[in-house]
Design goal:
about 110 residues, alpha+beta, SH3 type barrels, 2 domains, 2 helices, about 30% strand
Length: about 110
Amino acid sequence: MNLAYAMGAVPSGGGGGMGGLGAFLPLILMFGVFYFLLIHPQRKKQKQHQQMLTELKRGDQIITAGPIHATIEGLTDTVVKVKIADNVLIDIPRSAIAAKIGAPEPKG
């Protein structure tokens, strides 16, 4: 018996016609899994955070990325003036707001 013949290449005989697509199918499936487990939830969370930032109004209680608990006293497109204590106002960028924590404080 010839050893070289036994180790020869497998003959290709039209095995279903998948060819190149069959090689990329696992890669495509892995991308699909990563999209639905990682990318899609992150985009959804980012969209909700952006909506929360656009809906902020005077009197809302917030937590900054610091984390500092504060009440909004004034708003512009990029800067928010917040009250962190009696007679203490600071300016922070809108992007530094992590969450809205409650309804406006009652006045009076």
